[in-house]
Amino acid sequence: PPAGTIGLLFPRSANGKFLSCGEEVGNSSLIILDERSSLDIVTSALSGSETIAIQEARFIEMTETLFPNQKSVSFEQPAVIRGDTAQLCALRNSLIELVAYPESEPYPEHLSNVITATVTWLIESMGSRGPESIIANRKRIYIAKQVQEYIEEHYCETVTTEGLCLATGVSARSLQRCFREYFDLTITEYLKMVRLNAAHRDLVSTHPSESSVSRMALRHGFTHFGRFSVAYRARFGESPSKTLINRKGVMSRKSH
User: Of 88 and 100, which is predicted with more confidence?
Assistant: First the structure.
């Protein structure tokens, strides 16, 4: 969300299942985040969302007024709030009414009611989650993000579990579990996906005379060309050589 605001996001997917920052989330959830938040949503189905940004100062003011004994809430890590379907539907409809006429200011009473409902839902949800579970989730996110960053920087090189353990300072079991829970992929699957995407980008952007499939595979960490071709076809629906031929045809047409 923009600086100085709190974002309220209602995600939805066709199958009602996806992961948000490693947590299982359904269509009966609200995600709250601020400008410092980094949000990853993983789903295998079509998805979308409704989102609104509220001034952070106003949100905090109402939180302190409604729940004076509640400790201050930080959204540096996105908070996933769950509720019943009817409750979510009512709040979502209220938000849609708020943004239906973007050229006009929302009624203060209407806006206040929406924030009140959101804050109440948030505090009640936090009460059902102990501090241990919140800390554990933050640690899981931190570890998963460390692994992701390492892979993004070193995917062209040899990436081993031992190397990842040295880079993150955690055990192999914790490493694999945290990553799988966060991204719904194994480290090996994610590494292969990153390498395939990078190879595809290069095959469609490099001049054919300057590249070959085998050279491209090696450049992006693949040492077995047959496996590379099979994985590439499964992901992009054509062989890497076909992509390169198509690129050559495009370059040829441009030269005429």
Answer: 88
Q: Does an H or E element contain 13, and which?
A: strand 5-13
What's 208's DSSP letter? G
Q: What is the pLDDT of residues 224-244, one digit of tens each?
A: 888 899 999 999 999 998 888
pTM: 0.57
Q: How far is CA 27 from CA 24, 82, 90, in A?
A: 10, 9, 13
Residue among 171, 177, 63, 75 nearest 124 (CA): 63
Query: Which uninterrupted H or E stretch holds 85?
Result: helix 85-99
By the 10 Å C-beta count (0-12 exposed, 13-18 middle, 19+ buried), 115 is classed as buried
Q: In CATH terms, is domain 190-255 a member of 2.60.120.200?
A: no
**SS3 of residue 25 by DSSP:** strand
Using CA atoms, how far apart are residues 208 and 212, in angstroms rounded to an integer? 7
